[in-house]
Amino acid sequence: MNINSQKRGQVTIFIIVAIVIVVLGVLLFLFYPKISTTSTFDVENPEAFIQDCVEDDLNDLIQTLSKHGISIDPVEPFAWYEQEKLQYLCYTPNYDEACARSPPFLIESFQEEISENIKPIIDSCFESLKQSYESKSYTVVMKKSLRDPKTAILPEQINIGISNYELTITKQTTGKYVSFNIILNNNLYELLNLASNILGDDVQVGQADKSKYMLENIGLEVTGPEYTDGTNIYVIKDKNTGQIFQFASRSWVSQPGV
Amino acid sequence: MNKKVLIFVGAIFLLVLAFGFVSAETCCVKPLEGKWCQDDLPADQCDISTPTPCKLFKGCLTGTGVSENTGECSSNAYKAETEAAGNSWFDEPLASVSVTGVNVCKKGCCFYGESTSLLTFSKCQAVSTALGMRTNFDPTITIESQCLSLSNPNEEVACVFTSSLSRDCTRTTREKCNSLGGDAEAGYLCTASRLATDCAKSGNTICYKGKVYFTDTCNNLANIYDENMFSKNSGNWSEIQEDYWTYIKNPSETDCTIDPNLAFSSSCGNCNEIEGTICRSYNEAKNNEVNSGMIAPKNGNFVCASMDCTHDTNNNNVFDIGESYKHGESWCAETEGIVPHIQITNETGKFLDNTRSLLTNFIPGTSKNGFKQSFSESYNFYNLPGSRYVRLSCVDGTVYEDFCADYREEVCMESTMGASTDNFRVASCVKNNYISCGNYTDKTSCEDGLFCKWIYGYRFDGQNLNSIDDREEEDQGSCIPLFSAGLKIWVSEGEEYPTEAICDSVSFADAIIYETSWTRDRTNFPDKPLCDTSGTDKNFDHTSDCSDKCYMIPTYGRTEAEGDYFSLKELMNLHKGEDIGENLNDACLSDRKSYYCDGKTGEVGGQSPDCAGDGSGKIMPLFFRHDEWILSIKDRARSIGDCGYKPGILMDDLKGLNPDLETIYAIYQIDGGKSYDAQKIYEGDFSPVYTYALA
After folding, report:
1. CA B468 to CA B461: how far, in whole Å?
2. Is residue B500 less than 8 Å (CB to CB) from chain A?
3. B410-417 and B342-343 as β-strands: parallel, antiparallel, unpaired?
4. Which of B395, B408, B410 to probe the A interface (max A CBs under 10 A)?
């Protein structure tokens, strides 16, 4: 009897241990991504820290600018579409006249907007980086110059070059970092290229053939209404990623009944 | 004079509304924010301004801009804005901009790394520079698919990494393999038996460049999916199957094909976008009705799905024959109040043989609420206020709507490509060039194009070109819009309505002349019946005493007041002096000789005006019957734009539509004597309203 009850006790302990292991396993599984993320601070690679830190906010910034036709908050003239203000990228207030493209260059303007609006995000990330090093008992000397970050929107990627921070990190040895590159995989270049072609058509004939562009770019969707006042709304969407770029234009509008 | 003449005037007024414009004096070249070159921007919002309108200021000229930084070319860019950022501006069209002999804005194939893109030379240069590469640009390749097919031209290899414990393998380029320190096995898949890697054949598949591919157990790309090339039973593998998993095959070397009758396949992954198939997950493919007959793939989860579409174009809640559309096809939607499916030829851009006749002899259709069925004339069905043409297109399994320009400034037209019954449909929104109609004064030239129709009747210059023998159908009439354009019937504060002038152009006043004996009392003439073929007054009704333009009298041309109309041919013959088959004063016709013969007076007194048969006939009247006149002026008014008593597409009934939009008034005046107040004899309705009581 005693032997049997000892065996039953052992079985109970095994069951409890098994349950604990399973629970730990489940917890590890559930929280693994966070654990993994917090452990990726590689003291040898501050660039990776900055990349990680900036990426989400950069994506949000790109999304905001894309949603409003390269503008955080469009100014007149703009059009409304689904409760959002859309900047006219080609506009004329007149009838029977080609629109003028302003700003003239979409990629260049988008780059400038990113460079301008990413600055506080970068500053905040460098502060976090400094604190991360200091929490690991590093001595950090961080110098900042007035040079702006440089954005390059390229096929399938966006590069941001940061050269206004100089970081000297000392513990047993000293490491000095003077430039940081952020690379984001993104199809914005392709969307802006298509937008530019559409605007070229708007200048010529007043409205682009959306289905023609969709047939030429199967992964992209071009939709959007034409308003009664002749405003064309274009929504370009990458069907795989859901990324959009939308804008308004008004060109070669016929005056009704004249 | 033994006769006295009464002149009565019927003045016709049809609807009216109007508009205006504003202009500018000061140009804000550079605003503090927003668009450059804006006229009349308040000074506190402007950084740089000039006291001239923008169109006169050189910096606000538009031309082609070329970005020094990104290589973008922009047509119609402002000179000042472009140059302010250090970019180049050219006063010439984008296509002809040349820098040091190179057409920098012309597209060609740009090679960078393993990728290619169809870019302009200047963009290619900018991208290559940013990526730290040399510019490699081929201006002779201008087709995107051709350029893209040249991407990754490097030789592909199985890249094997050997360690004491494993033989890993990756499919990549030789260049990359060398940089990774692997052994490059050119042309081999990682599953090749002779390489003895850890990567095994698998039934897994993925989508790659629009086609379905097998992958191995290391997730490397293998060859295009072919259900016959994989067997779960390793003992059953044939030599062909082994071979399939040994060598990298070009898609063109793949044996499996897709049955063109099905246009989808779950057994062969060799999808072809040009032929309308593309790699999709099985579940995604099944969401499209055209793939409903597809069975699940034997291996993996990806199939070649049809990119075609089905669409309930006629809105009857079922997919009818003809409502399946190929990928790339476009057609016109059947939206409320428009002419559906206007067919033009692909070759000439003109109407198909029967299209014009269909357009001018509409067959009434049905509508959801049945409202429009109560109208008898075509102009009450088509091109109605508020209606808009819409073009539909099928792209990659989805039907997209493109709205043609509002106010029917554009019309959707369809054509077909190919000679078989399986023709490929193409539709486009075509600019409604109704403005041109005003240039034509004859039927042939009017109806030579797509946008005008000829309505026999009044000419805009007021002439009657008919002869004694015939009516000049070719020249006697008006050239008006075939697809009546919309008019702007609401305006902003301070604007004026432009509609009034447009609708006024089809309004007019005209005079009927009555002839009667001097012994008659004329003061009560307006109270006399329009047509009396039985009573004692039958020689003193309106139709009997009419001497010119009698068609304006309601009932004119009928056999009796409530009877049928005579045929136009019978009435034409009557004007040539032929017998009508009954005494003229027994019908609703004039029995005055002066109506049929020049220089004659008095009563015809029989079944034919003999005087017209001896060569002294009068020029044929514009119309022979009242209904013919009403139809002509109504069609002319309603076709010119949104003029007249015409239902809008959102109206469920005629309540709220003002009948005065289409009204005819008569003013009776005795020659040299008393005149009476204007009387309404017709108002917008679908049956005439006659009011003759004196006010």
Report:
1. 20
2. no
3. parallel
4. B395
Rounded-to-integer distance, Cα B181 and Cα B175, Å: 10
pLDDT the model gives residue B371: 30
Question: Which two structure tokens, joined as six digits, stand for A119?
Answer: 């600055």
Q: How far apart are CA A105 and CA A90, in angstroms?
A: 11
Question: What is the chain B residue with the closest CA to A196?
Answer: B74
H/E element, A237: strand A231-238
Which residues are registered as beta bridge partners of A162? A180
| pLDDT single digits (tens) B470-512 | 999 999 999 999 888 888 766 666 666 666 677 777 787 888 9
- What's the pLDDT tens digit per position in B442-456? 999 999 989 998 989
Cα B322 to Cα B313: distance, rounded to the nearest angstrom: 9
State how far the Cα of A67 lies from the Cα of A63, in Å rounded to an integer: 6
Model confidence, pTM: 0.81
Supply the Cα-derived Rg of chain B in whole angstroms. 38
* Contacts A–B by Cβ distance under 8 A: 143
Instruction: Please give the Cα distance from B402 to B344 (Å, whole number).
Output: 19
Report how far residue B327's alpha carbon sits from residue B175's, in angstroms, rounded to the nearest whole number: 39
Closest residue of A to B21, CA-based? A94
Angle (CA) B617 B621 B627, round 5°: 140
Find where tokens 């990349």 sit: A51
Residues with Cβ within 8 Å of residue A68, at least 6 apart in sequence? A74, A84, A85, A86, A87, A246
Find tokens 């091109």 and name the residue: B383
- HSE-up (13 A, CA, CB side) for residue B463: 10
Amino acid B263 reads A
End-to-end C-alpha distance for chain B, whole angstroms: 31
The answer to whether the CB of B540 falls within 8 A of the CB of B516 is yes
The pLDDT confidence band at residue B153, using thresholds 50, 70 and 90, is: low
Query: CA angle, B59 as apex, B100 and B32 as ends, to 5°?
Result: 120
Is the bond leading into B688 cis (omega within 30 degrees of zero)?
no
At B232, list the tokens.
């779960």
Q: What is the H or E stretch that residue A30 is in?
A: helix A2-38
- What is the helix (H) or strand (E) element at residue B596, kind and residue range? helix B593-596
Q: Which residues of B touch A204 (CB under 8 A)?
A: 75
Q: Which alpha helices (DSSP H) does B441-551 contain, by range?
A: 443-446, 499-504
Average pLDDT, chain B: 83
Helix (H, G, I), strand (E, B) or coil at B391: strand
| Cβ–Cβ < 8 Å for B553, B546 | yes
Q: Which two tokens stand for residue B601?
A: 């007076």
Parallel/antiparallel/unpaired status of strands A100-101 and A84-91? antiparallel
Helices (H), A42-187: 46-67, 106-117, 119-135
Higher pLDDT, B341 or A16: B341
CB contact under 8 A, A154 and B115: no
Nearest to B481 by CA among B508, B507, B463, B454: B454
